[in-house]
Amino acid sequence: MFRGMGNDARVLIGGRTIDGPTHPVYNPARADEIVGRSALADAELVDRAVRAAADAAPGWAALSVTDRRAALKGAAAAGLEDFENRARLLTAEQGKVLWESMVDLAGAPYLLHESRRLIERVAGEEVADDERGRFIRRRRPVGVVAVIVPWNYPVLLAFNAIAPALAAGNTVVVKPSELAPLTLTAVLHAVAATLPDGVLNVVPGDGAVTGHALAGHPLVRRVMFTGGTAGGRMVMRAAAESITGVGLELGGNDPALVLESAVIDDELVTALRNSVFTCSGQVCFAVKRIYVHRSHFARFVEAFSDAADELAVGDGLDPASSIGPLISAAARDRVADLIRDSAENGANVRELGSKVDPGGWDRGHFLLPHVVTAITQQSRLVAAEQFGPVLPIMAFDTEDEAVALANDSEYGLAASVWSRDDGHAFEVARGIEAGTVFVNVHQAGASDHTTPFGGVKQSGIGRINGWASIEELTETQMLIRRDDAATLPGPPG
After folding, report:
1. Residue 104 and residue 154 in contact, taking contact as beta carbons nearer than 8 Å
2. Which pTM does this prediction carry?
3. Looking at 284, 385, 399, 472, which residue is catalytic?
4. What architecture is domain 254-439?
5. Candidate list 100, 249, 385, 399, residue with the active-site label
6. Among this protein's residues, is 284 annotated catalytic?
7. Distance between CA atoms of residues 214 and 209, nearest Å
8. What pLDDT, on the 0 to 100 scale, is given for residue 4?
9. Do domains 11-250+455-478 and 254-439 have the same CATH topology?
10. Which of 375, 416, 448, 492 has the fewest Cβ atoms nearer than 10 Å?
């Protein structure tokens, strides 16, 4: 048993904690070690949570700008409580190294604080008076928002939806991932305690029961889902029953294009390595495949492989670890199968990096970093969102070819273009089918809370961050008085 936290993920409805069936949450670095236990909320508890949120919605929406800003200030402070212990708990349940858990955990107070800045704008109205009459355009909260959260960055990604939802005057029901629910649920309980009962509710559980019941509940007015494309399809099917709006941030198979005009130096190589392997490659918009101009190919592969070889894989709580384990045995085995398939089909596969604790290696879901070359565009590794520490690198001869290869995917979340000529890089970027194309950067934070973020094709629907989130989580309402009604056309016929 993991010691020192005692934070089980419990249901929270209308300000009350509710006990019930639970399942163990294991440490990916020591798969036989139970970190805590998580509730398995059933459809009846989901119904109660949604109804509690619906009951609280009118009062929360009616708060003045000043009162709502004050409420979120208190919520942000609660998000900082017990920060060090919560970060360690997050690493224990999710696996990533401690600094990554700190970044994840800091997302809650940061996003609550930044969303406070939007409240006055949300409450504002656009008024037009002219010869036609008066036209008032305003935004109304949608009501109850369901937030369904993944396991890779559970706190930050949850509050990417929760914070603007609250700022916009909505109430919220959150379903954490069953794989990493403990830290997020602890933060949610702390934040909810600063808010009126029912404004923020928590229903830990699995996707098939808890997630389906939440996405399909007729009183939910918007579902904000972050996760895999298959999960997004299930959310859409459930939400369709009530014509519920959805915001989906889904998978990505994100390409990086290293142009002939790029400079292959330590800065470029390190930046790309960090994008590929942060969180052991388990990031939706991490670089998943790299296309390099043939004139740089051999040099880039060698430099990137050397950089990847510096990584040490181990328990995320061990300061010697650069990256931690994968989230589960199934995730590790899936990535290992893609690596094996590549080798069996003639690709050049290089295993790199080092084991921090060789003796304890088999206890966790560990996988060393791999670099794969001499691989085709049609291979499974290139076509899939591998979500693990393995990278295919391929050469191209012309920029048109590189863009075509980048676009040859069902996904379109993010991409990047690397060149010493920024202007030319932006021109190339315009041809890439992705919601975000970075230039000479590809990392978390490059698309910050002010920048709309989301995917095209099967990478999602809608946009998040800042005002884009507010637009997703409110409805436009028009108030109209016509002074020229006598001149309007009558009914047909």
Report:
1. yes
2. 0.95
3. 284
4. 3-Layer(aba) Sandwich (3.40)
5. 249
6. yes
7. 9
8. 40
9. no
10. 492
